[in-house]
Write a structure and sequence with these properties.
The complex is a heterodimer. By secondary structure, chain A is an all-beta fold. Helices cover 0% and strands 56% of the residues of chain A. Chain B contains no helices and eleven strands. Classes of the chains: A mainly beta, B mainly beta.
Chain lengths: 110, 115
């Protein structure tokens, strides 16, 4: 079983819609959680960190459920520019390297 | 501000040749990471350094791969001899431990093709 699992998609969503992604992680020692965004043929960039209390950054909301080992990302009022691959990322306690899911591909359609 | 710099951006080589990838982290960052991305396996950590010292190389696939960090502003990842299955995008990332955000900043990557 992969340490971080995501639905690869693609998710085809009309502009202005709300879309949600989930991911699950298998290592209960995971300590830090993130969503990264990767555009085609570009490097990953941090979208947002994910906190146990949930956190919001503009149109983006991230949630963490430690009991179920589950992380979510909600995008409201989606824009064409949101089209990208969204990577669910965890860092294990005591380690510094990141473990990435394979990503969810999102396509926003006009 | 200059981000993480990697060179070359693209490398095409033949099986058996030595390949050297280079990385310059963001100035002041004390951690440097090497990752590899393939369609099959996604992004995987190969090795990382803290203050120029290798901390965890458990992700390095085999003895053909080696990495060095001779100083705080330069690191290399070497593959010798290269094989077609090494074809991938290799990313270097850096971070500064002193921040609360734990953010890693990635370079643009080196796209390696081994024929």
């Amino acid at each position: 079983r992969k340490e971080v699992e995501q639905d690869p998609g693609p998710f085809n969503v009309p502009e202005g819609a709300t879309v949600a992604f989930n991911c699950t992680y298998s290592n209960s020692a995971s300590q830090s959680f993130f969503w990264y965004r990767q555009d085609c043929r570009k490097e990953p960039k941090l979208l947002m960190s994910v906190y146990s209390s949930g956190n919001e950054d503009g149109r983006f909301t991230a949630q963490l459920n430690r009991a179920s080992q589950y992380i979510s990302l909600l995008i409201r009022d989606s824009k064409l520019s949101d089209s990208a691959t969204y990577l669910c990322v965890v860092r294990r306690g005591g380690a510094d390297g990141l473990t990435f899911g394979k990503g969810t591909h999102l396509i926003i359609q006009p | 501000d200059a981000g993480v710099i990697q060179s070359p951006r693209h490398e095409v080589t033949e099986m058996g040749q030595e390949v050297t990838l280079r990385c310059k982290p963001i100035s002041g960052h004390d951690y440097l990471f090497w990752y590899r991305q393939t369609m099959m396996r996604g992004l995987e950590l190969l090795i990382y350094f803290n203050n120029n010292v290798p901390i965890d190389d458990s992700g390095m696939p085999e003895d053909r791969f080696s990495a060095k960090m001779p100083n705080a502003s330069f690191s290399t990842l070497k593959i010798q001899p290269s094989e077609p299955r090494d074809s991938a995008v290799y990313f270097c990332a850096s971070k500064y431990q002193g921040t609360s955000t734990d953010t890693q900043y990635f370079g643009p990557g080196t796209r390696l093709t081994v024929l």
